[in-house]
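Changelog note: in this version the structure field was regenerated for every chain. One regenerated record is shown below for reference.
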Amino acid sequence: MSALHLRCFLLHLLAFTVVFGACQAVAHETGEVKEAVHKPLRVLVYSDTGDYRHPEIPAINRWLVLEGDKQGMKIDVTEHHRDLKPEVLDRYDVLLLNNANGLSDVLPAASRKAVEQWFARGHGIVGLHAALVRQQEWPWLLDIGGCDFDSDSTFQNAKVIVDPTAKEHPSVKGYGPEFWYAADWSNHTRSVTGLPGVKVLLRVDESSYEPVREFFQKLGGKPMGKDHPIAWTTEKHGGRFFYTELGHDVRSLDTEFGRQHVFEGIRWAADADTRLLPRILMLGDSISMGYHQAVVSALEGEAVVVRPEENCEGTTKGVARIEKWLELEGGDFDVVHFNFGLHDLKRVQSDGQNSDNPSDPPQADLQTYARQLRRIVELILASGATPLFANTTPVPKGKVRPHRDTADVARYNEVARQIMQKHEIAIDDLYRFAVPQLADIQRPVNVHFTPEGSKALGDKVTESIRSALDERMHQTRKSANSSTGD
């Protein structure tokens, strides 16, 4: 049985479900009972607003609950931030934002963080209409949504175009290549076409209606032009996000297409497979940044791979930032693949700036490197993740800038080896992997690697991560068997 299949089996075997006593009650007012079998899809609708409040929000909430019951879903409604906390969110598959705009004004930071962490564990968010209005103060939501609000139209009939690549998506299937539909159409601050993780489902033809109503014309509102997406999905940060411009009022939802579009969107967002994928955190310097994408591509569908956007540099920065990195995109990582050393051994001036002078000190001497690396290891272990250390790759001979002593690599790697051995942490030996083929994969007189070299390192790292996941699953199975007396 593969590591991934074993993970799925164990999670299904050990999981238990708690649900609220009444599907239409507000979440924090209901009791909990156990469900034995056939767990229905559970959706939490949040509809509080920090900006303009659409008058039909209550009617849409009612429609969602009643229609959801017909669709076999259990839907609860809330407008209280206390329901967006881990112990409540974990009871749901999907969080639906019913025109819930300006959320930074109504959700405290703790609630926003809880949503981010819940989403990162493989859950889904659905946004209706104004869910992407004035969300600039919540950068995470703005990132998965891809845009904010500029203006909108009146309720009008318009030509809707199904993106050819999305024609089989269940929320639009059977309605391509184009059809006419009536709704209030929003204009966004930018098109989401081509953004990472985004797949456009529907666009609207602005030549078929008046895209900016008079109120917004006076305020300088702008149409979007030929590329005007009105429904899309985003897969990033561990979860699934579905957005549609429909939902200004019930008229745009309570049709054959509207019901299919919204409830199939909910089902898509709730896809359980993503939450069973292991989560990998990659930490390292520019060498790691070079092979990161190869790892992401190789593990697509097997694991969620996360790394900071910044260069993690050496242990000095690592000690200062490790706790923040361990919380990226909700934290809860299975494996942390990390590397520190190449920046630690480089020469620096008294002000910390890079130096080409071999007489200047390293950024972190061996004693400092050991102390800081031990602290990083302790925090990774405390997070519950399996650490996997990648040792430092070779420094070629010649005038490498900033100055690095070729012989220092072995010294720093030996200190790291001793620390990892003490904690029984596996080492991804990139040094030994690179040395025999250095002339073919490393740039001349440069610590960095060619694109082909980075790909080769990425393949090696992928292999090591898979081994770490296999070992983690093996230990999980042993623990499960031990607890049941098998």
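Spot check on this record: The two ends are 18 Å apart (CA to CA). The chain has two domains: 16-274, 278-484.
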